[in-house]
Amino acid sequence: MSWRIRGTYFESCNCDAICPCRRIDGAAGGRSTHGVCMGVLSWLIEDGAVDGVELSGLPVALACRYSDDESGSPWTWVLYLDAGASRDQRAALEGIFTGRLGGDAERHFPWAWKASELVAVRAVEIRVDHTRRRQRLRIRDRVSVRIRDRYQGGESVTCVIPGHGRAGEELVADELVVEDGALAFEFRGVCGYGSTFNYVGG
Description:
This protein has helices at residues 87-97, 105-108, 110-113, and strands at residues 3-13, 23-24, 36-50, 53-54, 59-67, 75-82, 116-124, 126-129, 136-139, 143-150, 157-158, 168-180, 183-187, 190-201. By secondary structure, the protein is mainly beta. It has one domain (3-201). The strands form two sheets. Strands 1, 3, 4, 5, 6, 7, 8, 9, 10, 12, 13 and 14 form a twelve-stranded mixed sheet that branches. A two-stranded antiparallel ribbon has the order 2-11.
């Protein structure tokens, strides 16, 4: 199945900035700050389709947790898809973001290539703003992320999820909150990251 999506990306997790999981000045990342990583990832698709199913304008988000001390550091995660999307659009996005459609998901999504537990796929209202250095994400009663500004450092930073070949910047989050069953956490002043993405498959 042929697919392609591109757009903007931002994330936040409970690590201190700069998140040690990232590639910093070309050096490979390592263990997370606290040994357990809890965070939220978000994508805003500017242009894309899966076998003719149009996906432009749709947001996607993911809340997650993993421990560096568990063998293979498996992910526990919830996938959020826009309630305003059609059934075909949500099915296409679920195929991409679970990794079932293969392609670049197998290089960029750790939850797709590692052992993982997908707790739920939820069709929800997603309010997202990917304005650079002022990113916001809101999923009512479940998720809230608010970026304060960029991290004040001169290091070159990249992330595997959008891709190490794509420029991005380290950010600082004012708020990172998830209340969704098995995933429940709240942090302030933690790390974030913003970039663009361009994934293909098929």
